[in-house]
Design brief:
Elements: H1 41-59, E1 64-65, E2 68-69, E3 71-74, E4 79-82, E5 85-88, H2 92-113, H3 116-120, H4 123-140, H5 143-151, H6 156-185, H7 187-195, H8 202-222, H9 225-230, H10 232-235, H11 237-240, E6 247-250, H12 252-255, H13 271-275, H14 295-306, E7 314-317, H15 319-324, H16 332-354, E8 358-364, E9 371-372, E10 377-388, E11 394-400, E12 405-408, E13 413-416, E14 421-431, E15 439-448, E16 451-461
Antiparallel strand pairs: 1-2, 3-4, 4-5, 6-7, 8-10, 9-10, 10-14, 11-13, 11-15, 12-14, 15-16
The structure holds iron/sulfur cluster (SF4) (2 copies).
Length: about 475
């Protein structure tokens, strides 16, 4: 509990925020948050930043690097393209390192700057505050008008406004879903899909409608509850933040005792509360619901200006910063995380740069054992899979390195296009004199222009 609230009798201070989320009533019912439209220094910057994030979100499926998508999360094809580099299912270690580094970066960022990501860059907040909420402001007006409209009777004006707002919400939800879809299937495939009759892709079409319906439900009704009740990142704040973390904070040393005629700077005007999209009072201290959107900083600064006081009663600061003045953002905890992150990233870069240019898998065809042939040879059938990770077409050839034998495949030479996968079946013949047991290890070599680029060991079964 913040210092200025400690020891105060509950009857004198509303501490219900400690018992339940602010947007739920005593019986668990939804309390609608009518947030006032923010404006000010931080809101302007947040708006501009959100334009870039939105532009990135929309543009990514159309950006190409060397002909490859900039980012493609091709789950069906089991390959991920991140910043133009392709990661196949075989690159699990590299992907695991990347994910681990990303998680650690988030932890480091949160330990240092709190939930800044949530208020400034999270797609949920960007779409809610910078897209859907702006449509709402435009059609229904600011918080007081919206509140009055919702509480008022169903007049023609109210029906018209609600219809217009929800129709636009549905259109935006459809556009969002289709853009997300392009992140997973690529823009070319998306254009092909939408140019075909719906009946040709009915299951995909239904999934698209369901996801759009989900987005519509989130942004028209569920809203900030994603951040306050669902998002696991939000719920981790309690363990990630400490007294050094820089978050949106109320300077209780300066602000208290609050009131219009007290010595504290806070005039208790509740303006900071009125703009909060999650409906909390930041003066109660750092709370799980605070997404660090900075709207309350702007609002309080305008109050401070109007009352002739210094801005920054609510500001980005740490608990230690408020208590003892200026603090460095560096402390032993985030320094340790930074070192580990640096090691992880170095390992990731090394693994990425040193990964083989092709990835070969040769496995005996399931269900088939061996065949005894008339010329005293034994044959096994194999499935061959080669992934070309380079940006060039590769002419490849497979040879047997460990034994004298014969490989029969429809054309031993394989031309594998850049960043693609080649699959084939071949038969290996070995003379029975070469086989001393029922299972022999054989080694294949994959050559490109007579240069050995990868070897692969597997087993050969015989009687
Ligand atoms: S806006 Fe500032 S002055 Fe007004 S209640 Fe909030 S902290 Fe106090
Ligand atoms: S308390 Fe301030 S920073 Fe936190 S969510 Fe509310 S308005 Fe945004």
């Amino acid at each position: 509990m913040p210092k200025h609230l400690r020891g105060k009798p509950v009857s004198n201070t509303d501490l219900s925020f400690r018992d339940r989320p602010i947007n739920l009533d005593e019986r668990g019912g939804r309390k609608w948050v009518y947030a006032k439209k923010p404006k000010g220094f931080w809101y302007t910057r947040r708006t501009i930043f959100s334009w870039f994030v939105l532009l990135f979100f929309i543009a990514v499926p159309f950006i190409r690097i060397n002909g490859n998508p900039f980012i493609l999360l091709d789950v069906e094809g089991r390959r991920f393209i991140i910043f133009g580099a392709i990661f196949w299912a075989q690159d699990t270690l590299i992907l695991a390192l990347l994910m681990l580094s990303f998680v650690l970066f988030i932890v480091l960022f949160t330990v240092t700057f709190g939930r800044l990501w949530c208020g400034w860059a999270c797609p949920q907040t960007i779409f809610l505050e910078m897209v859907f909420r702006k449509v709402e402001y435009l059609i229904e007006g600011d918080y007081r008008k919206r509140h009055k409209l919702d509480k008022g009777p169903w007049t023609l004006e109210k029906v018209g406004k609600k219809l217009a707002k929800h129709s636009i919400f549905i259109l935006i939800s459809l556009a969002m879903t289709n853009t997300f879809l392009m992140w997973f299937i690529g823009s070319e495939k998306w254009f092909v899909l939408v140019s075909e009759p719906i009946a040709a892709n009915s299951s995909g079409f239904i999934i698209m409608l369901v996801v759009s319906g989900f987005f519509y439900w989130v942004y028209s009704w569920f809203r900030e509850q994603i951040c306050t009740m669902v998002c696991p990142y939000g719920r981790m704040q309690g363990v990630l933040l400490d007294s050094n973390s820089i978050v949106v904070s109320y300077d209780y040393k300066r602000g208290e005792p609050r009131g219009p005629k007290t010595s504290g700077d806070c005039i208790d005007c509740h303006q900071c509360l009125s703009v909060c999209p999650t409906g909390i009072d930041i003066r109660n201290g750092t709370q799980l619901e605070c997404v660090n959107c900075t709207a309350c900083i702007d609002q309080c600064n305008s109050v401070m200006k109007a009352t002739g006081k210094k801005p920054g009663l609510i500001r980005f600061d740490s608990e230690k910063g408020i208590q003892h003045g200026h603090q460095s953002i560096w402390n032993p905890r985030n320094k340790a995380y930074s070192v580990v992150l640096l090691i992880l990233l170095s390992f990731f870069v090394y693994t990425l740069l040193s990964r083989p240019i092709i990835e070969t898998t040769i496995l005996r065809t399931p269900g088939l054992l061996y065949q005894e042939n008339e010329n005293s040879t034994i044959s096994n059938v194999y499935n061959l899979k080669i992934v070309n990770k380079t940006h060039d077409n590769l002419p490849l050839e497979i040879r047997l390195l460990s034994h004298e034998g014969e490989i029969k495949m429809a054309g031993n030479l394989m031309e594998i296009a850049d960043q693609s996968m080649f699959e084939a079946t071949f038969i290996l013949y070995l003379h029975s004199d070469l086989l001393s047991s029922d299972k022999t290890e054989v080694e294949f070599g994959i050559y490109s222009d007579n240069e050995l680029i990868e070897t692969y060991k597997t087993s050969f079964v015989s009687p």
